[in-house]
Amino acid sequence: MRQLLAPVLNRSENEIRFDHLNGKPLIHRCPVSFNLAHSGDLALVAVSKAPRVGIDIETLSAKHNLTAIARHVFHPTEIALLNGKESDARAQFFFEMWVRKEAVVKLLGQSVFQSRDLMVADTMGKGGRVPLPGETDTSAWILPVKVSSRYVAAVAIESHLDRIPKVRVHEWDG
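The structure assignment produced for this chain is given below.
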């Protein structure tokens, strides 16, 4: 993270000191927002000029009882959509919805287990904008991030804009 943020912040890596708020890393008096996610052998870092950003990545896996997890995390409408999927498409759909929801709650500095009222199903596919729960007149764009066929990922960017924010993906092999 220090290697990635140092040039953006115009600081040396040694000058960057991290704090945490609700488990989310932060740097005091930082002109950008950032977030980190990892799964398997990949990690993603989101850096934005937006006030807040969240990112998540998950390895596709059907090992877990996805329906039971969904009951604790997903909105009732999202659970119905998940249950309506054929069994071979259910894991893909679950994880695509999960990373969207997780990206938003990471933007908020909360836990995904506090997110049942957050509805992200309308962002499936190319992405979309959702109101942020508990916040008046604030929303976030949720956009999928293409990583590989073994992973799903999404980024959430706080924005008052009516247009999709630009997202650039850079591969880094540090």
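Interim note for the steering committee: Residues 2-158 form a domain with the Ribosomal Protein L22; Chain A fold (CATH 3.90.470.20). The chain has one domain: 2-158.
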